From TrEMBL:
GO terms for biological process: peptide catabolic process; proteolysis involved in protein catabolic process. It comes from Punica granatum. This is Peptidase M16 N-terminal domain-containing protein. SUPFAM superfamilies: LuxS/MPP-like metallohydrolase. PROSITE patterns: INSULINASE. The lineage of its organism: Eukaryota, Viridiplantae, Streptophyta, Embryophyta, Tracheophyta. Gene3D superfamilies: Metalloenzyme, LuxS/M16 peptidase-like. Keywords: Hydrolase, Metal-binding, Metalloprotease, Protease, Zinc. GO terms for molecular function: metal ion binding; metalloendopeptidase activity.
Length: 311
Protein backbone atom coordinates (compact mmCIF):
# COMPACT_ATOMS: atom_id res chain seq x y z
CA UNK A 1 0.00 0.00 0.00
CA UNK A 2 1.33 3.46 -0.83
CA UNK A 3 2.45 5.75 1.95
CA UNK A 4 0.04 8.64 2.39
CA UNK A 5 -3.01 6.72 1.23
CA UNK A 6 -5.04 8.36 3.96
CA UNK A 7 -4.55 11.56 1.97
CA UNK A 8 -6.16 10.05 -1.13
CA UNK A 9 -8.51 12.50 -2.77
CA UNK A 10 -10.96 11.59 -5.51
CA UNK A 11 -12.47 14.47 -7.43
CA UNK A 12 -15.24 14.33 -10.01
CA UNK A 13 -16.14 17.72 -11.42
CA UNK A 14 -19.59 18.30 -12.84
CA UNK A 15 -18.23 18.43 -16.40
CA UNK A 16 -15.34 16.03 -15.86
CA UNK A 17 -16.10 12.30 -15.70
CA UNK A 18 -12.49 11.37 -15.01
CA UNK A 19 -11.41 10.36 -11.51
CA UNK A 20 -8.29 11.58 -9.72
CA UNK A 21 -6.21 10.33 -6.82
CA UNK A 22 -3.01 11.60 -5.25
CA UNK A 23 -0.69 9.10 -3.59
CA UNK A 24 2.82 9.18 -2.14
CA UNK A 25 4.86 6.01 -2.56
CA UNK A 26 7.05 4.65 0.23
CA UNK A 27 10.10 6.22 -1.46
CA UNK A 28 8.42 9.68 -1.29
CA UNK A 29 7.60 9.81 -5.00
CA UNK A 30 4.40 11.85 -5.42
CA UNK A 31 1.93 10.56 -8.00
CA UNK A 32 -1.28 11.90 -9.49
CA UNK A 33 -3.47 9.12 -10.90
CA UNK A 34 -6.12 9.89 -13.52
CA UNK A 35 -8.70 7.34 -14.63
CA UNK A 36 -10.60 7.98 -17.86
CA UNK A 37 -12.64 4.97 -19.07
CA UNK A 38 -13.43 6.75 -22.36
CA UNK A 39 -9.87 7.46 -23.49
CA UNK A 40 -8.26 5.75 -26.50
CA UNK A 41 -4.74 6.85 -25.49
CA UNK A 42 -2.85 6.58 -22.20
CA UNK A 43 -0.06 8.88 -21.08
CA UNK A 44 2.47 9.57 -18.35
CA UNK A 45 4.67 12.49 -17.39
CA UNK A 46 7.57 12.49 -14.93
CA UNK A 47 8.90 15.81 -13.64
CA UNK A 48 12.23 15.89 -11.78
CA UNK A 49 13.10 18.99 -9.76
CA UNK A 50 16.57 19.26 -11.31
CA UNK A 51 17.48 21.44 -14.27
CA UNK A 52 20.26 23.44 -15.85
CA UNK A 53 20.65 25.64 -12.75
CA UNK A 54 22.23 22.55 -11.14
CA UNK A 55 24.90 22.15 -13.83
CA UNK A 56 28.41 21.98 -12.30
CA UNK A 57 30.77 24.84 -13.09
CA UNK A 58 32.60 24.09 -16.32
CA UNK A 59 30.07 21.44 -17.43
CA UNK A 60 27.32 23.63 -18.83
CA UNK A 61 24.52 21.55 -20.34
CA UNK A 62 25.11 18.44 -18.19
CA UNK A 63 21.46 18.25 -16.99
CA UNK A 64 20.29 18.49 -20.60
CA UNK A 65 22.83 15.86 -21.64
CA UNK A 66 21.51 13.53 -18.92
CA UNK A 67 17.98 13.98 -20.27
CA UNK A 68 19.26 12.69 -23.63
CA UNK A 69 21.16 9.77 -22.11
CA UNK A 70 18.23 8.48 -20.07
CA UNK A 71 16.35 7.73 -23.28
CA UNK A 72 18.84 5.06 -24.31
CA UNK A 73 18.59 1.95 -22.17
CA UNK A 74 18.24 0.41 -18.70
CA UNK A 75 19.32 -2.88 -17.15
CA UNK A 76 15.87 -4.35 -17.75
CA UNK A 77 15.69 -3.06 -21.34
CA UNK A 78 19.32 -2.96 -22.50
CA UNK A 79 18.66 -2.54 -26.22
CA UNK A 80 19.57 1.05 -27.14
CA UNK A 81 16.68 3.36 -28.00
CA UNK A 82 14.14 0.57 -27.41
CA UNK A 83 11.97 2.89 -25.28
CA UNK A 84 11.34 5.40 -28.07
CA UNK A 85 10.99 2.63 -30.64
CA UNK A 86 8.38 0.80 -28.55
CA UNK A 87 6.32 3.97 -28.07
CA UNK A 88 6.41 4.79 -31.80
CA UNK A 89 5.50 1.25 -32.85
CA UNK A 90 2.45 1.33 -30.57
CA UNK A 91 0.81 4.48 -31.82
CA UNK A 92 2.41 6.95 -29.44
CA UNK A 93 4.93 9.73 -29.13
CA UNK A 94 7.53 10.67 -26.55
CA UNK A 95 9.71 13.65 -25.72
CA UNK A 96 11.46 15.49 -22.89
CA UNK A 97 12.79 18.93 -22.04
CA UNK A 98 15.22 20.46 -19.57
CA UNK A 99 14.28 23.77 -17.98
CA UNK A 100 16.14 25.89 -15.43
CA UNK A 101 14.88 24.08 -12.33
CA UNK A 102 13.24 20.92 -13.58
CA UNK A 103 13.36 18.26 -16.30
CA UNK A 104 10.27 16.62 -17.74
CA UNK A 105 9.84 13.28 -19.54
CA UNK A 106 6.50 12.33 -21.10
CA UNK A 107 4.81 9.99 -23.55
CA UNK A 108 1.44 8.85 -24.86
CA UNK A 109 0.67 5.41 -26.30
CA UNK A 110 -2.18 3.11 -27.31
CA UNK A 111 -4.22 1.77 -24.39
CA UNK A 112 -3.24 -1.89 -24.84
CA UNK A 113 0.50 -1.05 -24.70
CA UNK A 114 0.46 1.33 -21.76
CA UNK A 115 1.65 -0.96 -18.96
CA UNK A 116 4.77 -2.03 -20.83
CA UNK A 117 5.45 1.55 -21.93
CA UNK A 118 5.25 2.66 -18.30
CA UNK A 119 7.57 -0.17 -17.32
CA UNK A 120 10.14 1.12 -19.81
CA UNK A 121 10.45 4.53 -18.18
CA UNK A 122 14.15 4.76 -17.45
CA UNK A 123 14.60 5.91 -13.87
CA UNK A 124 15.58 2.55 -12.41
CA UNK A 125 19.17 1.47 -13.14
CA UNK A 126 19.66 3.33 -16.44
CA UNK A 127 22.53 2.26 -18.67
CA UNK A 128 24.65 5.22 -19.70
CA UNK A 129 27.11 3.41 -21.93
CA UNK A 130 30.44 4.84 -22.99
CA UNK A 131 29.53 4.21 -26.65
CA UNK A 132 26.40 6.34 -26.38
CA UNK A 133 28.17 9.16 -24.56
CA UNK A 134 30.05 10.61 -27.54
CA UNK A 135 27.07 10.16 -29.87
CA UNK A 136 24.76 12.03 -27.54
CA UNK A 137 27.22 14.87 -26.93
CA UNK A 138 27.19 15.30 -30.69
CA UNK A 139 23.37 15.19 -30.65
CA UNK A 140 23.27 17.93 -27.99
CA UNK A 141 25.74 19.95 -30.06
CA UNK A 142 23.59 19.47 -33.16
CA UNK A 143 20.55 20.70 -31.23
CA UNK A 144 22.49 23.78 -30.17
CA UNK A 145 23.62 24.41 -33.78
CA UNK A 146 19.95 24.35 -34.80
CA UNK A 147 19.11 26.83 -32.02
CA UNK A 148 21.74 29.24 -33.35
CA UNK A 149 19.48 29.79 -36.34
CA UNK A 150 16.48 30.64 -34.14
CA UNK A 151 15.94 34.28 -33.17
CA UNK A 152 13.99 33.24 -30.07
CA UNK A 153 16.84 31.04 -28.78
CA UNK A 154 19.44 33.69 -29.63
CA UNK A 155 17.54 36.42 -27.78
CA UNK A 156 17.00 34.16 -24.78
CA UNK A 157 20.71 33.38 -24.50
CA UNK A 158 21.62 37.04 -25.01
CA UNK A 159 19.32 38.00 -22.13
CA UNK A 160 20.98 35.37 -19.91
CA UNK A 161 24.42 36.66 -20.95
CA UNK A 162 23.43 40.17 -19.81
CA UNK A 163 22.35 39.02 -16.33
CA UNK A 164 24.28 38.76 -13.04
CA UNK A 165 27.25 36.41 -13.53
CA UNK A 166 26.99 34.99 -10.01
CA UNK A 167 23.35 33.89 -10.56
CA UNK A 168 22.65 30.50 -12.21
CA UNK A 169 20.31 32.23 -14.68
CA UNK A 170 23.49 33.46 -16.38
CA UNK A 171 24.48 29.89 -17.31
CA UNK A 172 24.41 28.39 -20.78
CA UNK A 173 21.94 25.58 -20.18
CA UNK A 174 21.77 23.75 -23.52
CA UNK A 175 25.38 22.60 -23.73
CA UNK A 176 27.46 21.87 -26.83
CA UNK A 177 30.57 19.99 -27.95
CA UNK A 178 32.80 22.59 -26.33
CA UNK A 179 31.18 22.58 -22.87
CA UNK A 180 30.58 18.82 -22.70
CA UNK A 181 33.55 17.48 -24.64
CA UNK A 182 36.48 19.83 -25.26
CA UNK A 183 36.68 21.80 -21.99
CA UNK A 184 36.11 18.86 -19.60
CA UNK A 185 38.71 16.85 -21.53
CA UNK A 186 41.23 19.68 -21.23
CA UNK A 187 40.74 19.58 -17.44
CA UNK A 188 41.21 15.81 -17.32
CA UNK A 189 37.51 15.13 -16.64
CA UNK A 190 35.61 12.18 -18.07
CA UNK A 191 32.19 13.51 -19.08
CA UNK A 192 30.51 10.13 -18.60
CA UNK A 193 31.88 9.83 -15.04
CA UNK A 194 30.59 13.33 -14.30
CA UNK A 195 27.23 12.41 -15.84
CA UNK A 196 26.83 9.33 -13.62
CA UNK A 197 27.90 11.35 -10.59
CA UNK A 198 25.31 14.04 -11.44
CA UNK A 199 22.57 11.43 -11.84
CA UNK A 200 23.34 9.74 -8.51
CA UNK A 201 23.53 13.05 -6.69
CA UNK A 202 20.41 14.73 -8.07
CA UNK A 203 17.90 12.12 -9.28
CA UNK A 204 16.11 11.19 -6.07
CA UNK A 205 12.52 9.95 -5.78
CA UNK A 206 11.58 12.70 -3.34
CA UNK A 207 12.31 15.24 -6.10
CA UNK A 208 10.06 13.48 -8.62
CA UNK A 209 6.40 13.98 -9.48
CA UNK A 210 4.60 11.53 -11.73
CA UNK A 211 1.25 11.90 -13.51
CA UNK A 212 -0.37 8.76 -14.97
CA UNK A 213 -3.41 8.91 -17.26
CA UNK A 214 -5.04 5.56 -18.00
CA UNK A 215 -8.24 3.80 -19.00
CA UNK A 216 -8.05 1.52 -15.93
CA UNK A 217 -9.73 2.25 -12.60
CA UNK A 218 -7.79 4.10 -9.91
CA UNK A 219 -7.01 1.02 -7.82
CA UNK A 220 -5.51 -0.78 -10.82
CA UNK A 221 -3.42 2.28 -11.79
CA UNK A 222 -2.17 2.71 -8.23
CA UNK A 223 -1.12 -0.93 -8.01
CA UNK A 224 0.69 -0.68 -11.35
CA UNK A 225 2.51 2.52 -10.39
CA UNK A 226 3.55 1.19 -7.00
CA UNK A 227 4.98 -1.97 -8.57
CA UNK A 228 6.98 -0.12 -11.23
CA UNK A 229 8.25 2.95 -9.37
CA UNK A 230 8.68 2.04 -5.71
CA UNK A 231 12.30 0.98 -6.32
CA UNK A 232 13.49 4.39 -7.48
CA UNK A 233 16.18 5.52 -5.04
CA UNK A 234 15.28 8.13 -2.46
CA UNK A 235 18.31 9.97 -1.10
CA UNK A 236 16.20 12.73 0.51
CA UNK A 237 17.90 15.27 -1.68
CA UNK A 238 17.00 18.90 -0.93
CA UNK A 239 15.43 20.85 -3.75
CA UNK A 240 17.69 23.58 -5.14
CA UNK A 241 16.83 26.98 -3.67
CA UNK A 242 18.12 30.01 -5.54
CA UNK A 243 18.86 33.20 -3.64
CA UNK A 244 19.43 36.65 -5.06
CA UNK A 245 18.15 38.20 -8.27
CA UNK A 246 19.37 37.50 -11.81
CA UNK A 247 19.08 41.15 -12.76
CA UNK A 248 20.14 44.17 -10.70
CA UNK A 249 18.84 47.67 -11.42
CA UNK A 250 21.90 48.11 -13.65
CA UNK A 251 20.97 45.09 -15.77
CA UNK A 252 17.40 46.34 -16.11
CA UNK A 253 18.53 49.57 -17.75
CA UNK A 254 20.26 47.88 -20.69
CA UNK A 255 19.00 48.60 -24.20
CA UNK A 256 20.13 46.08 -26.82
CA UNK A 257 19.74 46.34 -30.58
CA UNK A 258 20.20 43.05 -32.43
CA UNK A 259 20.26 41.95 -36.06
CA UNK A 260 17.84 39.02 -36.44
CA UNK A 261 18.28 35.92 -38.58
CA UNK A 262 14.82 36.36 -40.06
CA UNK A 263 13.86 39.67 -41.60
CA UNK A 264 11.51 41.74 -39.45
CA UNK A 265 11.21 44.13 -36.53
CA UNK A 266 10.30 43.29 -32.96
CA UNK A 267 10.26 45.18 -29.66
CA UNK A 268 10.90 43.05 -26.57
CA UNK A 269 10.58 44.52 -23.08
CA UNK A 270 11.53 42.30 -20.13
CA UNK A 271 11.27 42.80 -16.38
CA UNK A 272 11.20 40.46 -13.35
CA UNK A 273 8.11 39.69 -11.28
CA UNK A 274 7.41 37.81 -8.06
CA UNK A 275 7.11 34.04 -8.72
CA UNK A 276 3.45 33.36 -9.50
CA UNK A 277 3.47 29.91 -7.88
CA UNK A 278 2.55 31.56 -4.59
CA UNK A 279 -0.69 32.81 -6.19
CA UNK A 280 -1.36 30.07 -8.75
CA UNK A 281 -5.09 29.92 -7.99
CA UNK A 282 -5.61 33.62 -8.68
CA UNK A 283 -3.25 33.75 -11.71
CA UNK A 284 -2.37 37.49 -11.49
CA UNK A 285 -0.03 37.25 -14.50
CA UNK A 286 -2.99 36.33 -16.68
CA UNK A 287 -4.76 39.54 -15.73
CA UNK A 288 -1.64 41.62 -16.36
CA UNK A 289 -1.01 39.81 -19.65
CA UNK A 290 -4.59 40.53 -20.73
CA UNK A 291 -4.27 44.22 -19.89
CA UNK A 292 -0.91 44.61 -21.61
CA UNK A 293 -1.98 42.54 -24.62
CA UNK A 294 -5.39 44.16 -25.03
CA UNK A 295 -5.82 45.50 -28.58
CA UNK A 296 -8.88 47.73 -28.14
CA UNK A 297 -9.03 51.51 -28.38
CA UNK A 298 -6.81 53.20 -25.79
CA UNK A 299 -4.57 50.16 -25.36
CA UNK A 300 -0.79 50.14 -25.79
CA UNK A 301 -1.20 48.05 -28.96
CA UNK A 302 -3.71 50.55 -30.35
CA UNK A 303 -1.43 53.54 -29.66
CA UNK A 304 1.64 51.88 -31.22
CA UNK A 305 -0.34 50.77 -34.24
CA UNK A 306 -1.78 54.27 -34.69
CA UNK A 307 1.71 55.80 -34.48
CA UNK A 308 2.93 53.29 -37.03
CA UNK A 309 0.22 54.24 -39.47
CA UNK A 310 0.86 57.97 -39.09
CA UNK A 311 4.60 57.72 -39.69
Amino acid sequence: MAVGEEEVEIVTARTDKRQYRRVVLKNSLEVLLISDPDTDKCAASMAVSVGSFSDPEGLEGLAHFLEHMLFYASEKYPLEDSYSKFITEHGGSTNAFTASEHTNYYFDVNVDSFEEALDRLFFIKPLMSADATMREIKAVDSENQKNLLSDAWRMNQLQKHLSEKSHPYHKFGTGNWDTLGVRPGARGLDTRDELIKFYKEHYSANLMHLVVYSKENLDKIESMVEEKFCDIRNTDKDCLHITGQPCTSEHLQILVKTVPIKQGHKLRVTWPITPEIRHYKEGPSRYLGHLIGHEGEGSLFYVLKTLGRSS
